[in-house]
TrEMBL record:
GO MF, any single term: peptidase activity
Gene: clpS
Name under which the protein is recorded: ATP-dependent Clp protease adapter protein ClpS
Pfam families noted in UniProt: ClpS
Keywords from the UniProt entry: Hydrolase, Protease
Amino acid sequence: DGKTDDDAGVITRTKPRTKRPPLYKVLILNDDYTPMEFVVHVLERFFGLSHSQAFELMLTVHKKGVAVVGVFSFEVAETKVGQVMDFARRHQHPLQCTMEKE
Ligand code: TYC
């Protein structure tokens, strides 16, 4: 188990590995212009937070500059970032949302 040897005698794997997909943190960044209530709305709408959770997290970003709002697979993280950036742009707010590998 964990070691394969093909017809040419090449060892292609020596260590048994379980496959876990990499996870990505989605971050929201502070800025001076996006209204607090807009950020709260974004956190409720795209990240499923309650109003009080969203308000608390918004204040954390406001005070500290950045916060992780969730951890997702690459595909889900990419979708969330795109949804937030698109929503902010449509409302002409400079809110920034990014992702980074955990
Ligand atoms: N700093 C903004 C303000 O004072 C509020 C804000 C919070 C903006 C969090 C972005 O990610 C953010 N209106």
